[in-house]
Amino acid sequence: MTPRADDDPAAGHARALLRDATRYSGARCLVLCLVSIAATGAGLLLPAALGRALDLVLAHAPATRWVLCCAGLVLLLGLLDAVQTVLTGTVDARTTAWLRRRLTGHVLGAGPRAADRFGSGDLVARLVGNAAEAGTTPAARAALVAALAGPVGGVVALGLIDWWLAAVFLAGAPVLALLLRAVSRDTSESASRYQRAQGRIAAALAEAVEGVRTVRAAGTEGRETARVLRPLPDLSSAGHRMWRVQGRAAARAVAVAPLLQLAVVAVAGVLLTRDRLSVGEVLAASRYAVLATGVGVLVGRLAGLARARAAARRLGEVETEPATAYGTRGLPDGPGRLELRGVTARRGGRTVLDGVDLDVPGGTTLAVVGRSGAGKSLLAALAGRLADPDAGEVLLDGVPLRELPHEDLRGAVGYAFARPALLGGTVGQAIGLGLPSPSPGLVREAARTALADDFVRRLPDGYDTPVADAPRSGGESQRLGLARAFAHGGRLLILDDALSSLDTVTERRITDALFGDGPGTTRLLVAHRGATAACADAVAWLDGGRVRAVGRHEELWRFPEYRAVFGDGAGLDVTDADDGAVFRDGADPHPTDTDDRAMLRDGADPHPTDTDDQAMLRDGADPHPTDTDDQAMLRDGANPHPTDTDSGGPRPVRTPGAGRAGRDVTA
Ligand SMILES: Nc1ncnc2c1ncn2[C@@H]1O[C@H](COP(=O)(O)OP(=O)(O)OP(=O)(O)O)[C@@H](O)[C@H]1O
């Protein structure tokens, strides 16, 4: 059973959508309705005129006026039909365009939630296919009024000729009414099923196209095709059911309508023999009986409306995902201090981040590290309000992000991602995306900083090359994404694994430029590599949904579990940490080692000796790097001789220009 709109938010949204869409095409809909009614009126006048002309011809009276009247009505009907066709087409197109605009804006306004919930393929199916079906609603409703006016007018005309004729017709009318109701209900159900199956196919197809390389590599093209088309039987059965419903209705209508017409004509014949009707009136009555039983037209219209309603409901479902609301509180001048207070976020039924507190002073860099799935990307998304936390608050310069207007928020926060989407006509436009008027100079400068300028200039039309014609590797894409983030500016820059596809030398050069540009930008950096984390002023170590510790990379490095985050053999070794790491919730990163715990309390290094070196060697780091080691380190993007004093022993390897010691980032 179709749920009532009150119980079903999607149906409520669908009704509101259709109401607004109809209002948008209001004037045209009204004209269409009037034209349709005029056509129906002309259709209703024609039998009367024909009957009158016939009576006059039979009586050998002058009938030219009435014959001309009949010809005029036929011409008018043709003209109105043409206008109706054109108007229906334009109203459908306008309404569809309006629905697509509104839904596209809504989907993008809702952010990643909508794509997560529906899947990109299904969303595309809704915004393309279902919007086109739902877009026929206003015109179909207008036409339905006229389609209803035909039978109603036919019955009235029968009553005007003789009330017996109307009475005979009305006696059989309830059967027709039941028939129409069943058509509308059954078509609605099967149309919903049909459209759902279409959506599932579209979603699976989008996944398969996205992962076409994986499919090819696995050699599973056949299996994938079968998976994409798995809903086909359901689609087919829903489609067949739809046609069966309409076919059955049409068959019943074919059975019931002629019987009714026959009854009307028979009664008209009887009335003719009693001289209550003329021959012309019998002719008119037979035509009106056909009009009054015009169920075929109604069945088609009702089925179309039912499909449109089912499609509108699928659009309504998309609208149930609320668009992000923005505040009106302006962002004051400030250094870009970022605070997370008790931030909790749930995904897929589990709490991924649980009461996270962080404080990143303006102009500093915080690296976020943690095992895969620890919630780093989620935290990065919350920090710039790509998503809202389920509890807690994120503040920029003391203002909760929720209270900021859209412009202030997006102007203040720049993002770069691991797999950036390059949107915009040309490469230059993709870099300047989101800026009110990006100058070519700014775009180039940003590209130079991101080390993208060289390869962009090698493209056929340089910065004017269409994005689609700019073949690029994963690393080149990332550099364009970084260029976009650099061009954006803003007081907070969030890099979500945005350096992961870069070779280590390029990464190093970019981080040099990034961290060397002085204060003014606060940076949050999701890092997988130790060398990247080492560039930051502080590292927040996420584990089990919480911040396990905050400290400098070299301070945290002593803890095997921290080192394990980067995998064996990753990067840096530390023997002189000052235990500045701040552990959260009393969590000890090295809980099994009681000595370490004691030493941490006393501020001493738990592994200051050769044993320590062994541990480091176990973890893949060489405490006494030689020239050969230097080469290896350079390969890894780390500088083996960052300062003269550092070069003599197992010191933290730090990237020059980075990690301004002395600034703290606290939890
Ligand atoms: N939309 C979602 N629905 C369900 N679960 C989600 C969703 N988004 C994220 N998650 C889950 O939240 C957890 C954290 O994801 P996130 O991408 O933040 O991890 P991460 O630390 O960045 O991982 P990685 O280092 O592998 O990129 C993961 O277990 C992920 O499966």
From TrEMBL:
What sections of the protein cross the membrane? 29-51, 63-80, 139-157, 163-183, 249-273, 285-304
Cell location: Cell membrane
Looking at the record, which segments are called Disordered? Answer: 580-667
Question: Entry's Gene3D superfamilies?
Answer: ABC transporter type 1, transmembrane domain (1.20.1560.10), P-loop containing nucleotide triphosphate hydrolases (3.40.50.300)
Where the protein is mainly located, per its record? membrane
Q: Which GO terms describe its molecular function?
A: ABC-type oligopeptide transporter activity; ATP binding; ATP hydrolysis activity
Q: Does the record bear Membrane in its keywords?
A: yes
Q: Where is the ABC transporter domain?
A: 338-569
Q: Using the record's annotation, list all stretches that form the ABC transmembrane type-1 domain.
A: 30-294
Alphabetized, the UniProt keywords read: ATP-binding, Membrane, Nucleotide-binding, Transmembrane, Transmembrane helix
Name of one Pfam family that matches: ABC_tran
Top-level taxon of the source organism? Bacteria
Q: Which SUPFAM superfamilies match?
A: ABC transporter transmembrane region, P-loop containing nucleoside triphosphate hydrolases
User: What PROSITE patterns does the annotation carry?
Assistant: ABC_TM1F, ABC_TRANSPORTER_2
Q: How does it sit in the membrane?
A: Multi-pass membrane protein
- One GO CC term on file: plasma membrane
Compositionally biased tracts (Basic and acidic residues):
581-627
PANTHER family of this UniProt entry?
ATP-BINDING CASSETTE SUB-FAMILY B MEMBER 10, MITOCHONDRIAL, ATP-DEPENDENT PERMEASE MDL1, MITOCHONDRIAL
Q: What name goes with this protein? A: ATP-binding cassette subfamily B protein
Species the sequence originates in: Streptomyces luteogriseus
**Phylogenetic lineage:** Bacteria, Bacillati, Actinomycetota, Actinomycetes, Kitasatosporales
